[in-house]
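Internal ticket - ligand job 484, copper (II) ion:
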Amino acid sequence: MTDTTSEEARETRAMGMIATLAGVAVALVLSAGALIIVVASGSGGGVAAVGAGTGGDSAAAASDAPTTISFDLDDMVVRPASHEVAVGGSVTVVNAGAIPHDLVLEEGGVGTPMLDSGEAYTFDTAALEPGTYTVICTVPGHREAGMEGTLTVVGADGEGRDTADAAHDGAGGHDAVTTASPYADTLSFDPNAAPPDDFEARDPRLAPAPDQDVHEVTIRASQVEGEVAPGVTQELWTFDDMVPGPVLRGKVGDLFRITFVNDGEMGHSIDFHASKVDPGTEMRTIQPGEELVYEFEAKHAGAWMYHCGTAPVLHHTGNGQYGVLIVDPPDLPAVDHEYVFVQSEFYLGPEGEPGDLTKMMDEDWDIVAFNGHANQYVHDPIDDVEPDERVRVWLLNAGPSENSAFHVIGTIFDTVWKEGAYRLRPGDEQGGAQALDLQPSQGGFVEFTFDVDGYYPFVTHKFANVGKGALGVFLVGDSDGASH
Ligand SMILES: [Cu+2]
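stdout (structure tokens):
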């Protein structure tokens, strides 16, 4: 062994000790100041045992790795990302995040139970052979969001480090310690797939606001299987078992008293953009079986988004947890027809499983849909409008990441109301508009008429998305669409 090598070895050991001590320091700070509960199991004995045999010469005969180490979980990160422990040593895991996490071996069998915020747990590694293991948080989406690391169990003479070295070199074994292959086994969207003949689209007609000043509503978060395109089934994360969630409507000054119930299998929350409240209270995440009451006065008119705000928000909204709450502007004129569309993207996971978070982070959507199902108003057109009748279409762009440029082919909008104000109304200027442009979470409405019978497609005019399901049809008057 040259001097350089032994110098490096000493440095490596010192870094390991610093990492261990840093982890312990966090654990102790938490135990003094917060809700820490140390649940000891196996031989570790919890925090008090830390320091025994952390690489001292006397322990080197068995292994030069520490016998007691600590991982900290934070919201969407595992610190440190890689750690060594002597064979048979113990691992303390502290949840320093705001929401529940766990840390277990990818192959299962060894790890922590689900830990609440501030909770800690110690498990031993007696059952593990020397080698490098991938450790992950099993809450859906958390691994993909970054909650993954490695645990190397080191035996005598450094046994078990070989696999770690191989991983660092990018050679054999690398796949085992990095994120699962992106997009593996995920579904794609076939724009030519047709639904069964009896397919019925979600009713797009918007009912008037209930004639009341107080809206007492119960909304339930849940996880259900549902179709987002013909034959494409995903596990959707929903409000009231539907994507988008229920449409709510009132007027300025109304009180909304929402009882929010978590019927799901993970933490969820609800965030009404129509409200001015303390986010830490009303928008807090509640666990399965819990409920809360979220009350607010609708002080401003708008087509407001509501959505789950639980981390990773992208995963919860990307899986369907959003909806629209309409607060009518004062003196909103009556029209012949009102419809409501929520535009959103889907990032398909495997059949029957949640959407792919890696796709979501890459903004690589498979589907853009109006009201949660690709092309549904092509398969089941909106056919109750006659020429010269006034139509109002409300639109929320729920995203989570793509914009909207709502356009109806064959007509012109004479009224545009967006984000709380009229941009255009009929008048002497004879102005017209061709698209309602909305970034994620923005909303508004447009008004228009059709001059003659016909087959009038509507789209987002970002045309790449039309081929991904952002297409519908108004079948006006006596048109049967035969020319299409
Ligand atoms: Cu959620």
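Auto-summary: Residues 3-33 form the longest helix (31 residues). The pocket of copper (II) ion is lined by residues 221, 237, 268, 308, 310, 316, 321 (CB under 6 Å).
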